[in-house]
Specification:
The protein has 158 residues and is mostly helical. The chain has five helices and no strands.
């Protein structure tokens, strides 16, 4: 498993962004229950995707105990793809008219990436599976970073 250092770095960055977001929330003058729906959605997105990124950045390190190297990326990518498609589907089903376009676009891209994960897990070779796994983690890290930046600023539907 040559990607272990990259996986651990991704997990560390996701933890740091989630931690910094808690500082932003604490420094906000209004309590969370007074936030509007968009700000709450953004915070939920940040925390939820951070947790997903952390779990799946560490997942191959745990899975390697029970599974041999050739099947490791198949199982890891397939599990990640299933969770990802469930997560993005629930987000798309719960969107409202007030949901900002940036969240809508990220969810649509996420759905495409999740379907790609499942296809690569089924049809790809070991290198393609590892690359798709790392690429999806980097995508999720980008979504976390986007949510963190948007938490600092008010974003509204445009």
């Amino acid at each position: 498993m040559q990607s272990i250092d990259i996986l651990l770095t991704i997990a560390e960055i996701a933890v740091a962004l989630a931690g910094f977001s808690s500082i932003v929330v604490m420094l906000n003058a209004r309590p969370i229950k007074e936030w509007d729906g968009t700000d709450r959605l953004n915070l939920r997105l940040l925390v939820q995707v951070s947790a997903l990124t952390i779990v799946f950045a560490l997942f191959p390190s745990i899975l390697v105990i029970a599974v041999q190297a050739p099947e490791l990326w198949t199982y890891a990518l397939f599990a990640y793809g299933l969770i990802h498609i469930i997560d993005v589907s629930s987000f798309l089903l719960n969107m409202t008219k007030e949901t900002p376009n940036v969240f809508r676009n990220a969810a649509i891209c996420g759905a495409v990436i999740a379907l790609t994960q499942l296809l690569v897990a089924w049809f790809g070779n070991s290198v393609a599976k590892e690359t798709a796994y790392l690429g999806t983690l980097l995508w999720h890290l980008g979504v976390v970073f986007m949510a963190f930046i948007l938490l600092l600023y008010s974003v509204r539907k445009t």
